[in-house]
Amino acid sequence: MKCPICRKEVKLTDPFMPFCSERCKLIDLGNWASEKYVISTPIRQGETEEDDSESGTES
Amino acid sequence: MSTAGAYDSSSIKVLEGLEAVRKRPAMYIGSTGEAGLHHLVYEVVDNSVDEALAGYCTEINVIIHIDDSLTVIDNGRGIPVDIKEEFGVSAAEVVMTKLHAGGKFDSNTYKVSGGLHGVGVSCVNALSETFQLEIWRDGYTYEQEYSRGVPKGPLTQTGKAGRKRGTKITFKPDTTIMEASKFNFDTLSQRLRELAFLNKGLKITLTDEREEPVKSHEFFYSGGIAEFIKHLNRGKTVLHEKPIYFEGERELPNGGILTMEIALQYNDSYSETVFSFANNINTVDGGSHLSGFRSALTRTINYCGQQAGLFKDVKENLTGDDVREGLTAVVSVKLPQPQFEGQTKGKLNSDIGGFVMQFVNDRLSEYFDKNPAVMKRIVTKAIEAARAREAARKARDLTRRKGALDSGGLPGKLADCQEKDPERCELFLVEGESAGGTAKSGRDRRYQAILPLKGKILNVEKARYDKMLSHEEIRSMITAIGTGIGKDDFDISKLRYHKIIVMTDADVDGSHIRTLLLTFFFRHMQELITRGHVFVAQPPLYRIKKGRSEKYIKDDKEFTREILRRATENLKVEANAAPGMEAIKLEGGELRSFLMALDEMDQLSRKVERRLRDSRVVEVISNPALLIDSKAEFAEEANLKPVFDELKRLGFNPEMRRDEEHSVWSVVYRDSTNAERFIGIELAAQPEYKRLRTLAKQTAKHNVAPFAVVKDSSRQVQATWRELLSYVKSEGMRDCQVQRYKGLGEMNADQLWETTMNAEKRTLLRVRLEDLVECEEIFSTLMGEDVESRRKFIEDNALDVRNLDV
Q1: Is the interface score ipTM higher than 0.85?
Q2: B459 touches chain A (CB under 8 A)
Q3: What is the mean pLDDT of the segment spanning B257-284?
Q4: Residue B680 domain-assigned?
């Protein structure tokens, strides 16, 4: 797994997992606090796919 | 002391001085332990280093003997041997017996003196059981011996030295005073190495004759403190290969010369390693030279970064702390009569800060001008440090700033429960205000609390859903949970609810909010997960109502199973039902498995169709009799012939094509957009293709059209398996009202309670750490720019969490 901030390789057993260090963990918390994390979905593409599978299962 | 008198009287005075050293040794050399013992060596070596500073000595040899006596030899000018009339003895003897004599008894001898501890070599003499002095000067050898500071005789010329010059002192510390008597090789190594770094070009050797074989180190650094920096940074990843190094001189107002030497190099750590020296003395508490260096560093990095336009998204200037992250530096100054402060003399007080600052400003800017790439790396690192500082401030805001809290310090939006024992309490994190409202009326307020979260939507005009958790929402959540957050504040014992249940819609938006929440817990409240406090609620996706009975169904697969179960309760199916044929009769469990397999085939066909772009072609390759699964089968042209013929019959203009690279065949045709499509090994490797083929073979025995559906006395014939499936499903839904929930908000309070919140009936999924390791990757994918992998995630976004009944 990679540290979400600096992309260094992190092992499951590392103390700050998934972060490489306390520093990166803190920066990440700051990112949450300043609303930097957004999940985006393209509306059209996403919705057509979704509609397809819905009609498929309902018929 | 101006007692110009007889040899005896003056020597008695001197002896009185040394007697004081023997009475209170700690006052002069710090202690009689390990530190004091080594201090004796440094006093002797400093005399030799002073000769080096004056430019007369290039080599110092230190030898530890087997009886723990120690010799220091230098190739300096040799201590003066002429008789000092003032004292009536040789100058050398004055140095050896008079406190504070050292190099200072003649101010012209040394412009700059280490004068490390200011007590001089006489202390060493006073505290030594035996002390031998040998001087090579002006072609002659002179010798003198002492015991506990008392000369055994005057300094005597004992032979010829030729061109050899220098001083040799051998002493054995007096064990009746010194508690420690064993010299430590590593301790001496460290200081001698430091001296060699600080005095470039000076060679210092250390030999330990107590070891077998004799152990020896040589310290010689032509690069001076620049090499010191390399030594300090060994094993670390540095930002620039070569240390930055400058040296220079300035004339002081009092006429003396200030020599400045600065070396620095950045590594990728976050800590600062800075050593400062004044006249070779390690000024552990810094002082004017260090503060001059620091202000110049901060100023120059800010100035050069601004000039280069690197501060576009940085609001304020970089602070001293920012520019010192990862810094390794050595500041060494040499000046006449340095002023120190404090008991340990660890701080330089001389007023030279301005000179050092000016010097570093000039030379560092010049260096940055010539090495813009190095400058950029250093500035970038400092900007990162500034960001981390800013991040830390914002992170603190999450818990420390007062916001919309009620009188009990809890978020206003939280509908808390009555129970106070955390073990019995549950917190539902509910997506959306309206669902939150429903959950509030539906809950058991005795032990269930509700916190509605909105999940801010941004950027709608850009034709995207951008989902995020607002600062305020994260704050409310942390406050409601009670544990606090961050290194110093997280305290699991303050957890207010032992079950934290994420309850979101069963759609893409819901899964995004869920992913955000779980990612946040994983990254910053991991203990909640490892202790098993985090759950995902399972709201139903369907409601099937028939008469007065209602049934809630959690997903599509279960829905199909339920519909088919209802249908097959009172109907039977005959396959191969054409008149005159021997029909295959199916009913009960066997019929249900057959229909479930057909339903799965139906869904897989759609997925395969996305690749083949024509349902008729999917029908062709679904024929279980064909040999089109393994690579070996594609190697035989004859195996693909039936596919070719069938496509031709359907009006495609197919082509058999040889793939020489893999020695296989494929059938190529053109879809409705005239694009080439392949039936070959690449298609055969797709999981949906493989599964479809497997199911086709499994169902082959029963999948023989036409089919007859027999119910009571009626008999309906269906021409294809798809028609059969669709007919049976509609039979299953006969007289039923089916509702598919698009969101939690579509349920009323009672329904939500019944299906999702009631601990007696609900199913919760406990979130495990392993699941979130995966979630972490998903989150990175969703955050990323790779649209294709994002789409793929949305297609199979079900977070794979273990089923757990609570």
Answers
A1: no
A2: yes
A3: 92
A4: no
